[in-house]
Design a protein that fits this description.
single chain; 132 residues; alpha+beta; 32% helix
Length: 132
């Protein structure tokens, strides 16, 4: 593994700790502090569907996540971490309440790393919300 790959994995793992904390508590400050000013993210559905640009837009998105999954979303397992020189992908399972209804899903999130910051985020999910 190259030094760049090792750094990418290290930064990605720290970001994921902050990401998980945000999901569970609604406190996204540490995660948001890791984003570049030109941060972009892609989300597969809803009002944030498609490509979104900017740290402010990311803050709106993660506030929305906190509202949707009140009182918090719990990760039940981290199934796989894959990385290369620029990207880290985390595959996990989570559960909680989505607008007051029981929710479970399998999710993959991808962080693109530049230096010690996240410059891009992509999220994918596709289970029926009931499966493990």
């Amino acid at each position: 593994m190259t030094q760049e790959s090792e750094n990418t994995l290290k930064v990605g793992r720290q970001a994921f700790v902050y990401f998980q904390h945000g999901l569970e508590t609604g406190d996204w400050n540490q995660f948001l502090d890791m984003l570049t000013e030109d941060f972009t993210f892609w989300f597969p559905m809803g009002k944030f569907h498609g490509l979104n640009v900017g740290k402010e837009r990311a803050q709106e998105f993660f506030q929305y996540v906190t509202q949707a999954f009140h009182p918090g979303l719990k990760l039940t397992s981290l199934d796989r971490v894959t990385s290369n020189e620029t990207t880290v992908v985390f595959e996990f399972r989570d559960e909680g309440m989505l607008f007051g209804e029981p929710y479970k899903n399998r999710v993959a999130v991808s962080f693109d790393i530049r230096g010690d910051k996240i410059c891009s985020y992509r999220e994918y999910f596709g289970s029926d919300g009931k499966s493990n």
